[in-house]
Amino acid sequence: MGTQDYKTKKVISIGTVSELTGLSVRQIRYYEERKLVFPERTENGTRKFSFQDIEILNDIANKREEGVQTYEIRQEMLKENKNRNDLHRKMLKGQINAHFNLRN
């Protein structure tokens, strides 16, 4: 297991997430419905969250306190993911070009 794996491993119950974030279980479920956080489900349907999910929920809570709507938060998250994917793609392309001595 890598050093960052613990942050993404989905092992934390919704009750514990509620305690750690100060959000109600209802709020956490609402943010899941709004596609802002994506817990895994056990065979019996229990939600399991990661430490990374907790960080995301804390960020959402702070933005909501500032008056940012969930739709705006979702759009920002999608934009960040696209930028991250574009950067990753450019890095891979650069590595491939360097490996094969290609020029653009």
List the helices and strands and how they pair.
Blueprint lengths: L4 H4 L3 E2 H8 L3 H9 L6 E2 L5 E3 L1 H15 L4 H30 L5
Antiparallel strand pairs: 1-3, 2-3
Keywords: DNA-binding, Repressor, Transcription, Transcription regulation
InterPro entries: DNA-bd_dom_put_sf, MerR-type_HTH_dom, MerR_fam
Protein name: Transcriptional regulator
Describe the model:
With 104 residues, the chain is mainly alpha-helical. The protein has one domain (5-99): Orthogonal Bundle (Multidrug-efflux Transporter Regulator, Chain: A, Domain 2), CATH 1.10.1660.10. Helices cover 63% and strands 7% of the residues. It has five helices and three strands. A three-stranded antiparallel sheet has the order 1-3-2. Strand 2 and strand 3 (47-49) form a beta hairpin. The longest helix has 30 residues, at 70-99. The protein starts with a helix and ends in a 5-residue tail after the last helix. The model has no long low-confidence stretch (mean pLDDT 91).
Spatial strand order of the main sheet: 1-3-2
Query: How many domains is the backbone divided into?
Result: 1
Class by alpha and beta content: mainly alpha
Share of helical residues: 55-70%
Low-confidence stretches: none
General form: extended
Organism: Melghiribacillus thermohalophilus
GO molecular function, one term: DNA binding
Protein name: Transcriptional regulator
InterPro entries: DNA-bd_dom_put_sf (IPR009061), MerR-type_HTH_dom (IPR000551), MerR_fam (IPR047057)
